[in-house]
């Protein structure tokens, strides 16, 4: 048993050191290839740390490319938050004569359409696409991707930019979301975001999105050349709350044709981009970072996300392996360690026959030491991740975090693991 725990501890250590560990592993593997130099990985580490903590050192040069752009926003009962988004759109520094804003009505049953029409009267570049006046959505089709497809068909812009109604855009958003598309190797661009909101739940959502999603994507993006060298196929990432794509390229790769019933329309679009040999870029420029409103139902939201994610993982067995490393392995090792520690404490009071289990060879005091070390790594890494996210100006950008959120973050992460496991047993998400 002690050997098994050592193996678990080793893998846990690899996982918890997050981005830097991934880069170090990549460096060690590079010795396999004569054309790989270990110092390349060191440069990546330095650049990554510089980008996170000193974003002004790595500002992307502004490219004065101003094609016609169509900004598409699918909505469904957003009357409480749509005005915040529309006000941020009015503050964009992109020429209004080259910007078309299309709000796509996803069968809104509240005052959202009326609010949009009021803005449209004063600002003609803002329009409402009423889905009730268009062909009805086929049964089982993803309402978001279906609405976006209809919007893209009618869009006048050369470049399509998509965001969500619960987002707030920075003034520089459009310029820096479309600039990377000048590189012919890039098929689509997504940007990072930060969760806003005052509650402890909002703070925890901000921590897990910053620490898990954003840093995970950063490590994947940096390690991409190494992954390609090993001929490992990893699907690209696209986030539906903030992405840009050329209209012609959207049709070139087939859009969502054949994927109409899939829930994770954004992930599948990123996969389709990389499937055609292009890069799905995730940009870390704070000038494209959007603020995203927190959800009041994080359990339902993440259960839906993770279930959709398992459909996406079917595209690559390596993705399943990566998910097991990110979620399964830490969860299992933590549960085993917790059981050993609790069993030992109960054994001290004669409540649990720890001595008998030790004599049977199931575990001994050495396992207890390893269990305590493993729990220490678990807690230390998660607290480190939370603190790392909080102090990075590029990740958080000045947001404060409640101490209660930081203290409970490890339990929140465990909550995420449980939801992920539950999602594996949930039936496929069907659109109604």
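Q: What amino acid sequence fits the structure above?
A:
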């Amino acid at each position: 048993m002690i050997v098994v725990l050592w193996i678990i501890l080793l893998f846990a250590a690899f996982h918890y050191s997050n981005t830097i560990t991934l880069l170090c592993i990549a460096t060690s593997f590079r010795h396999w290839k004569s054309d790989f130099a270990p110092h390349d990985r060191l440069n990546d580490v330095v650049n990554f740390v510089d980008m996170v903590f000193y974003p002004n050192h790595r500002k992307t040069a502004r490219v004065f490319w101003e094609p016609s752009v169509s900004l598409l926003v699918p909505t469904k009962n957003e009357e409480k938050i749509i005005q915040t988004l529309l006000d941020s759109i009015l503050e964009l520094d992109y020429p209004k004569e080259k910007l078309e804003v299309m709000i796509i009505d996803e069968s809104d049953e509240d005052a959202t359409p009326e609010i949009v029409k009021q803005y449209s009267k004063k600002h003609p570049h803002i329009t409402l696409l009423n889905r009730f006046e268009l062909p009805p959505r086929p049964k089982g089709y993803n309402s978001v991707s279906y609405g976006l497809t209809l919007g893209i068909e009618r869009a006048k812009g050369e470049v399509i930019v998509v965001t969500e109604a619960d987002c707030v855009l920075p003034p520089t958003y459009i310029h820096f979301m479309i600039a990377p598309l000048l590189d012919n190797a890039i098929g689509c661009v997504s940007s990072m975001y930060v969760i806003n909101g005052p509650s402890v739940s909002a703070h925890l959502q901000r921590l897990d999105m910053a620490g898990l999603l954003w840093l995970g994507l950063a490590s994947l993006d940096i390690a991409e050349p190494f992954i390609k060298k090993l001929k490992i196929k990893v699907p690209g990432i696209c986030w539906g709350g903030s992405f840009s794509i050329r209209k012609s390229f959207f049709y070139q790769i087939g859009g969502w044709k054949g994927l109409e019933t899939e829930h994770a329309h954004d992930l599948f679009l990123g996969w389709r981009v990389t499937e055609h040999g292009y890069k799905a870029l995730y940009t870390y420029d704070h000038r494209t970072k959007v603020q995203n409103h927190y959800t009041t139902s994080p359990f339902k939201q993440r259960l839906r996300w993770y279930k959709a994610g398992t459909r996406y993982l079917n595209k690559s067995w390596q993705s399943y392996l990566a998910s097991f490393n990110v979620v399964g392995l830490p969860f299992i090792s933590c549960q085993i360690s917790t059981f050993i520690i609790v069993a030992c404490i109960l054994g001290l009071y004669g409540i649990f026959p720890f001595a008998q289990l030790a004599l049977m060879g199931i575990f001994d005091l050495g396992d207890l030491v390893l269990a305590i070390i493993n729990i220490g790594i678990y807690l230390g890494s998660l607290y480190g991740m939370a603190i790392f996210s909080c102090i990075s100006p590029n990740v958080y950008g000045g947001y404060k975090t409640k101490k209660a959120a930081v203290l409970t973050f490890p339990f929140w992460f465990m909550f995420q693991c449980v939801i992920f496991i539950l999602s594996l047993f949930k039936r496929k998400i069907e659109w109604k």
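Q: And what stands out in the fold?
A: The domain at 69-312 is CATH 3.90.550.10 (Spore Coat Polysaccharide Biosynthesis Protein SpsA; Chain A).
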